Amino acid sequence: MNIWPHIGIGASGVVGVVVATVVLYAVFVAILHFWGVRYLAAGSTMSVAVFTVLGALCARAMLGNSPTLCGALVAMATLFVLEFGFGRLHAVMSMRSHRAAGRARAWAVMIDGRARPDALRHVGLTAERLHERLRAGGVRHLDDVALAVLEPRGTLTVVRRGESIDPQLLVGIAGLPPGFGDVDTTGGR
To answer: What are 84-119's pLDDT values in tens digits?
Structure first.
């Protein structure tokens, strides 16, 4: 009984899996870069379904005509190498470019209990979705929110009125009024 055709892979198959994995990784990273935060911030069932289908399509396409155990191991190893390498490169480049250009990585989407429509538009979040995320975070009154920040990965950070925040933690957040970090959120605004 010869099981190699079911679990093994030849040299040309390895090259095919590596090339397909690299190309699809690049496409998937581009999709996440341009639309990822919007979909992650929305947190809807449809956004989860879309990313699940995209991931499944990429995974299947990486393995070629006949998926095998060894082909899957080659694809996984390639993905880990790509993620490690590009993750390191992105971290270094991101720190340099954000420092040099003063670009923000996070957006203040609510200040003093008021949503900021310009920031919501920029990050692709509706006021309804923002309110949904605030409720999920335990906010019961909009006036309780001193600051809500949509982070680069789509999470929402809420600083409640009455809480203090270190001004260093506000560095790099777009949309904050000048001197915001110097203001007391304990009600002394």
So the answer is: 888 777 666 655 554 444 444 799 999 999 999 999
Q: Report the candidate in 71, 61, 65 with the shortest Cα–Cα distance to residue 14.
A: 71
CA gap 67, 49 in Å, rounded:
24
Q: Which of 12, 20, 13 is nearest to 69 (CA)?
A: 13
Render pLDDT for 45-79 as a digit per residue (tens, 0 to 9).
887 788 889 889 888 999 888 889 999 999 999 99
Query: CA-CA distance, 169 to 146, in Å (whole number)?
Result: 14
Identify residue 181 by its one-letter amino acid code. G
The answer to whether 53 and 79 have CB atoms below 8 angstroms apart is no
DSSP string of 36-66, one letter each residue: IHHHHHH--HHHHHHHHHHHHHHHHHHT-SS
Q: How many CB atoms lie within 10 A of CB 147?
A: 24
Residues 6+ apart with CB under 8 A from 122: 107, 174
Strand partners of residue 106: 173
3-class DSSP assignment, residue 134 = helix
